[in-house]
Structures are given as C-alpha cells and as structure tokens.
C-alpha cells in the first residue's frame, strides 16, 4: 500500500491522510456486512427452491444450501481491505500522534479496543436473541433464523459510527511531534561549547548549527534550503 497504492493516488491528486484511510476502511466494513446479508438471503432463497443437500454430521442431519462457498469471497475480500485501511493505519495513527513517552501505552489502548470489539460483538448476539425471543435471529437451526437481519444491523451501526468518526476527524488537528517536541540536538563537544557556531540564513532568519541539526533530522529543512 505505501509503495504502490498510496503514491499512485497522490500522483492522481488524492491525498489520503491517516484519518481518511481509516474512514474509508470503516465504509468498506459496512459494505462487507451488507454484501454478507445479500449472500445469506440468496442462500435461503436457493434452499426454498429445493437447492439443498442433506448432510449427516455426528449422527445428526443438516440441510446445506447448494450455493457455492465461493459466493463469500466478495465479503471477505472487502472486509480484508477494510482491515488494511483501518487497523494498520490506526496503529500508525496511534503511534505518530502520541508523545514519544506514551507511544507504547497509546498503541496498547488501540489494540485493547479490538479485543473489546470482539467481546461486544459476542454480547450483541446475546442481546439480539433475547430481544427476538420466539423468532431468534440466531436459533440452533440456522436455516430457521434471520442472520441477514443481524448483518444489516451491523452495517447500520457501522454507518452511524462512521458518521460520528467523520465529525470528530473534521475537527482534528494533526500533531507533528518531530517539530513541536524535537529530540535534543547532538553534542558538539568542545567546539559547540567553546566557540560560536556560524549563523545560517534561512528565509532571512538566523539559525545556529544546533538549530540546523534538529531541522535536518525531522525533515523540516533540506540542505538545498540553506
């Protein structure tokens, strides 16, 4: 992505910032759930038309749709792309937008949200089944359930979450810790302590040797600008 996709989009005039990448990944996640709902509806329609096989597993008979398992490829492809845009970029965002002393803590908190999300997902199934008692979305016999409704519910929740994210992202200001909190300049030894460093003119302003070292290190200054 960083080698091919993002540079290509930048050449085409699309500058995908970290927050834009995360937002696009959230959108893809919502789309993947909508696609999954469509596949589930198609599976059940095929079974109603007699397109199913009876399988015996552990002395129990189950009816399985004749719909190809490859029909699930689109939804998994989309959710995989969502992970690339959201999770990986989220780690990069958490690392780059936190103070150096808190980078490990912030990244740990970001990963904690992933674990909490899995827990909430399991809890949501219990809540949904309790709310739809008698017509459970997730009954023991899956063919009598309404899993497509659950997928649609997830898609709607993701769209709402995306809307809230877009509002917060709109007002977010990126922090450049390399510039605001630069690392201490290297020690020049006796030369830096016993003699004055020559001034360097940059846009009419005076910079000594130590200022130059810091700006060159964080990329705010190039040799050609001196």
Characterization of the model:
- By secondary structure, this protein is mostly helical.
- It has eight helices and four strands.
- The strands form two sheets. It has a two-stranded antiparallel ribbon. A two-stranded antiparallel sheet has the order 3-4.
- Helix 2 packs antiparallel against helix 3.
- The longest helix has 31 residues.
Strand-residue proportion: 5-15%
End-to-end separation: 34 Å
Order of SSEs, N→C?
Answer: HHEEHHHHHEEH
Give the overall silhouette: elongated
- Kindly state the percentage of residues in helix: 55-70%
Kindly report the average pLDDT value.
80
Count of alpha/pi helices: 8
Task: Report strand order across the widest sheet.
Answer: 1-2
The radius of gyration over CA amounts to 27 Å
Low-confidence parts:
190-206
Q: How can the largest sheet be summarized?
A: 2 strands, antiparallel
Number of strands: 4
Q: Give me the secondary-structure category.
A: mainly alpha
Can I get a quick summary?
With 226 residues, this protein is mainly α. It has helices at residues 5-11, 18-48, 73-96, 103-131, 147-170, 177-180, 190-194, 209-218, and strands spanning 52-57, 60-65, 200-202, 205-207.
List the helices and strands and how they pair.
Blueprint: H1 5-11, H2 18-48, E1 52-57, E2 60-65, H3 73-96, H4 103-131, H5 147-170, H6 177-180, H7 190-194, E3 200-202, E4 205-207, H8 209-218
Antiparallel strand pairs: 1-2, 3-4
């Amino acid at each position: 992505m960083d080698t091919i996709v993002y540079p290509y989009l930048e050449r085409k005039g699309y500058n995908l910032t970290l927050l834009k990448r995360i937002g696009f990944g959230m959108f893809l996640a919502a789309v993947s759930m909508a696609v999954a709902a469509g596949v589930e509806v198609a599976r059940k329609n095929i079974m109603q038309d007699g397109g199913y096989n009876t399988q015996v597993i552990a002395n129990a008979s189950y009816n399985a749709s004749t719909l190809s398992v490859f029909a699930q490829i689109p939804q998994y492809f989309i959710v995989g792309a969502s992970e690339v845009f959201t999770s990986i970029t989220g780690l990069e965002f958490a690392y780059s937008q936190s103070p150096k002393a808190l980078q490990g803590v912030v990244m740990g908190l970001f990963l904690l949200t992933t674990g909490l999300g899995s827990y909430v997902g399991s809890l949501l199934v219990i809540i949904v089944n309790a709310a739809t008692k008698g017509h459970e979305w997730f009954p023991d016999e899956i063919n009598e359930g309404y899993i497509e409704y659950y997928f649609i519910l997830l898609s709607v929740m993701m769209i709402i979450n995306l809307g809230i994210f877009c509002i917060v992202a709109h007002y977010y200001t990126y922090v450049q810790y390399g510039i605001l909190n630069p690392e201490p300049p290297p020690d020049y030894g006796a030369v830096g302590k016993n003699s004055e460093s020559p001034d360097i003119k940059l846009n009419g302003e005076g910079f000594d040797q130590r200022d130059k070292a810091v700006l060159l290190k964080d990329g705010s200054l190039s040799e050609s600008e001196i």
